[in-house]
What we know:
Elements: H1 3-13, H2 18-29, H3 35-41, H4 56-69, H5 82-101, H6 106-109, H7 118-138
Helix pairs in contact: 1-7, 2-3, 2-4, 2-7, 4-5, 4-7, 5-7
Amino acid sequence: MNDTSLKLMQLGSQGFCCSQMMMIMALEDQSEENSPLVRAMSGLCHGMAGCGGMCGAVTGGACVLGLYAGKGDEDEEEHDRYQLMVSELMDWFNELASAEYGGPTCNDITGGSGVPDMGICGMLVEKTREKVLELLAENEIDPTTPKGGEDVS
Length: 153
């Protein structure tokens, strides 16, 4: 068992859902905490607030990409490859989840129960986190540096 698996088990035992886990780990990469943001991520839990829609691991992953590459205020521009990164993440997840579970929704993955199985869901969060980190690296975005915190000298 690796460090990410252990962290996911810890977060799951604390009652956090997939989308929240994705954001908590990204914030920890930046040595940051942001309870309001983590709280907001609960809107993506269990397929969009418990509706069984798109899996929270991938919607959380899209939010993590936004944390690093999205537009945050009127004077800021999104990264020129932000939309492509999100599209690549969604295509990758759709292919993975469709092959394994018949589709990318929480209902597909949980067999319609809507009850997360930490074995399956934890693995999907871990794989999605790896894909997000890969996309950031491919686009020369340092996951330890918050957007706007990069050296501009």
